[in-house]
Amino acid sequence: MRGCYFENSNQSILRHGQVWIILWCLLLGLTACSSIEKLLPRYSDNQIKNIHLAASDDVNQSTPVAVDVVFLFDDILVTQVAKYTARKWFEEKLQLQLQNPDKFVTFSYELVPGAQAVLTPAKEKKKFPEAYQKALMVMAFANYLDESEDYTINLTPMKNPELLLGQRKITLKDAKK
């Protein structure tokens, strides 16, 4: 019996080497996946704590502006909505809600000039179909009267985004609170 073991030792070493090569390739593949995740932050849990919206006194030609903050939970929907302009979002959001009722959550605001609003997702848990941190992407869309600009903002990489809606532009900063 022992002789058989030693006679097949070359085959055993060969198989053992193949196993190591396969394990090395798997490890390399896993490392590549984590690198891709760093390049595509939408696949990571978001870190949003608060979203602060503020409208200047001359926002939207001194008229109220509709703002939607959208938490997307579906990868296919993320790909689709990420391409939307603000105008297209407001035109198609009702249809999207009918077709994808549990795949995103929208918080809608109507900000009059000088108004402010704060969304704290942790306090809004009952409105979310799952934990807000699991949203793959968080977008904000503002429906300005001026159609020459696109008022779409990706909030996903931020912790405490502050959006100042000005007369014809949105200023975004991440308050490190």
Keywords:
four-stranded antiparallel beta sheet, disordered N terminus, 33% helix, four-stranded mixed beta sheet, 177 residues, 4 helices, alpha+beta, single chain
TL;DR of this structure?
By secondary structure, this protein is an alpha+beta fold.
Could you tell me the mean pLDDT? 80
The ordered string of helix (H) and strand (E) elements is: HHEEHHEEEEEE
What form results from the Cα inertia axes? Answer: elongated
Distance between the termini: 71 Å
Number of helix segments? 4
Q: Give the biggest beta sheet.
A: 4 strands, mixed
Classification by helices and strands: alpha+beta
Give the C-alpha Rg: 25 Å
The share of residues in helices is 25-40%
Proportion in β-strands: 25-35%
Count of beta strands: 8
Unreliable stretches (pLDDT < 50, length at least 5) are: 3-7, 33-43
Characterize the quaternary organization of these chains: single chain
The largest beta-sheet arranges its strands as 4-1-7-8
Blueprint (SSEs and pairs):
Layout: H1 2-7, H2 9-39, E1 51-55, E2 65-72, H3 75-81, H4 86-99, E3 104-111, E4 116-119, E5 137-143, E6 152-154, E7 161-165, E8 170-174
Would you kindly provide a written description of the structure presented here, covering whatever features stand out?
- With 177 residues, the chain is an alpha+beta fold.
- It contains 4 helices and 8 strands; from the N terminus they run H-H-E-E-H-H-E-E-E-E-E-E.
- The strands form 2 sheets. It has a 4-stranded mixed beta sheet, with no helix packed on it. A 4-stranded antiparallel beta sheet has the order 3-2-5-6.
- The protein is elongated and about 75 Å long.
- It starts with a helix and ends with a strand.
- The N terminus is likely disordered.
